[in-house]
Amino acid sequence: MTTVTFPNDLLFSTNMTQQEIATELAVALYQREKLSIEQAAELARMDRIAFQHLLASRDLYLTLDVDDLEQDIATLRALGRL
């Protein structure tokens, strides 16, 4: 995992915490399809389900690519649900 640090003047001018800025960046990059759901959740320092709930709370649609679908299938198989 890579740590992203934002300058103090950015934190001050936005009146946001490091976590809040990272979350907003993750949402924006996910919306622009620059990050997968897993990557965006990691950037936001959230598990995937929590990130999906965040998207839903903002009325944002979940977009899945082939890699996301394959990962979901693998997870369901590992859990014995497929």
Protein described:
- This protein is mostly helical.
- It has helices at residues 8-14, 18-31, 37-43, 48-57, 66-78.
- It has one domain (8-78).
- 62% of the residues lie in helices and 0% in strands.
- α2 runs antiparallel to α3 (37-43).
Short key terms for the protein model shown above:
82 residues; 5 helices; mainly alpha; 62% helix; 0% strand
Helix-strand layout with pairing:
Elements: H1 8-14, H2 18-31, H3 37-43, H4 48-57, H5 66-78
Mean pLDDT: 89
What Rg is obtained from the alpha carbons, in whole angstroms? 15 Å
Order of helices and strands: HHHHH
DSSP helical segment count: 5
- What's the main sheet like? none
- Which residues sit in consecutive blocks of at least 5 with pLDDT less than 50? none
Oligomerization state: single chain
End-to-end separation in angstroms reads 30 Å
What gross morphology would you assign? elongated
Helix content range = 55-70%
Judged by helices, strands and strand pairing, the structural class is mainly alpha
Number of strands: 0
Q: What is the number of independent domains?
A: 1
Residue share in β-strands: under 5%
